[in-house]
Amino acid sequence: MNRVILYVLFTLAASLKLIFVSQLLLTDLSKGAILVSIGFSMVLFSMMFLFDKYWVWYGISAASGVSLYTWGSYLYMVYFQAPFSTYITLQASNLSGMTESIFNQISLGQFGFFMDILLVLGFFIYTRRRNNTIETGRNFKAFGMIAILAVLLVSLKPASMYLNDMENLLLKKYTSTSYIGNYGIVGHQVIDFIDFTTSQQELELSAEEIDNIHGFLSNEENISKRKRPLLEAGIFEGKNLLMIQFESLQQFVIGEKVNGEEITPSLNKWLESSLSFNHYYPQTAEGNSSDAELLVLNSIYPLKEGSTFFRYPTAEYPSLAKHFSSLGYTTTAFHGDEGSFWNRDLVYPSMGFERYYDITEFQNLNTNQIGMGLSDQAFFEQTAEIIKKQKEPYFSMLITLTSHTPFHIPEEKKLLDTGELKGTQLGNYFESIHYTDHYLGAFLNNLEKNGELKDTVVVIYGDHNGIFKESKSEVERWRKKKITDESWKLSYMSVPFIVIGDSLSESRVVSDVMGQVDTAPTLLDWFGFSQETYESYSLGHNMNSYINENIFLLRGDYGESIVIGNDGRISEYQPVHSETLEISEQLIKSNFLLKK
After folding, report:
1. pTM for the model
2. Number of folded domains in the chain?
3. Buried b / exposed e across 463-474, counting CB within 10 Å, b at 16+?
């Protein structure tokens, strides 16, 4: 077996796999990604020349490592539309609940990641059976020459940036794909790991940085005052607050039908006496659902890297729960998954919730599980009984689960016939949304029947998207029309924000753009809290009294960082948006709220 031929085969295969994965999230061909991928592969397999007898096994082992790494990166990047980061390893406990979602992406075509190994193993077994000899001996000269050439290839991109007076951008990361664009997936992983190991767990701010934060928080640019508030300030003062985070619920399904049936009949009914925003956008990052909770409850943005709940579980979060608790409210949170999922069992006490009910607090688990955890039917039925016994006034947070991807509802539990969409991603999505909507409606009807809703305000919102641009063709088939990329961003990436209460005598839909970060200050105004309650930390705005000129998404369709204007225009980040994220990171990392 010829060592040079095997070296070339392994190096070429690894380079192609690394380049393919590196280009997955990039719109333009990256020369840096190509050069680093080739250079890394050359160095990795050049070590075959340092072995005397076992160079074949080294080559197979190294190739297996590259195959597993690129395949795993591919699955992660396709699902989350973001590159794997070292911080994600802190969130490994979440994988136990997402196994079905991840394995749902596996297809036969992905065996291409392992074809070179299978070919070499087959040829190696064949030659051993024919008693062909395996080349022995080391070749330090070949190793040295390859290593030097590889270093030159890897150095070309940073050298080019330096010569073009762009050295300040060598290690700058403006988006999740910045490192990949310059250095490929391997370079991204190396630099990301260095960032991880050298970053401070708790940031020490200078006096100047603290003054800058205070100045930034008091700035009222990018908003304009309404001629009159949407509702009277304090209109809900003293009432209970019931917040429901509806998994993967998007605005485009509200009021719509499939195969002649309403997708969300319960929500449609309750919208008749509500205030809602139809351009309310998710601003989540790598923490997904947990980021939605961070944004909505605290009016701060999630960290750009990893889940904020995992990296800073005991930070001094401002949280709506703490504000309501200061007025004597009972504060509880409910979720039908494991308490450790997204680290909620540690974070919710930090946010001021007196009690967090996870899946272990519910009954009949063996017969009431769908997908990742407790079915929303059992969740709503059992949570209703707990809420009825709570001391009033109360603030309760409910997080649904069944409509989580991959949207598989058991056949006997399906409540919606999606017709020609049956079995498609969009059809499955509609089935799961309809399932949760049905039992949400039963939950609200139950509370209303028992008089629980008379003094209760219900807020329902979507945490993030469930249908992404990859399914646009299915949406177009359902809609029977073409959807432009701009229309997709404006009309299909928003999630609902619905406020239901006896004080609202008629339905009202607000079309101003609103981000999840604006939720807390808006609710606090409606519940009679003063502006001083939240102005010292809030990065969102009170939508009851103000209008945003624009809002920005951190990872849009789990991948795009864009700005959406109140005039419907889509644009790129401006310095103020990047500065906002930097301020948010400082607030969290420095435990600013504890020290101010």
Report:
1. 0.78
2. 2
3. bbbbbbbebbeb
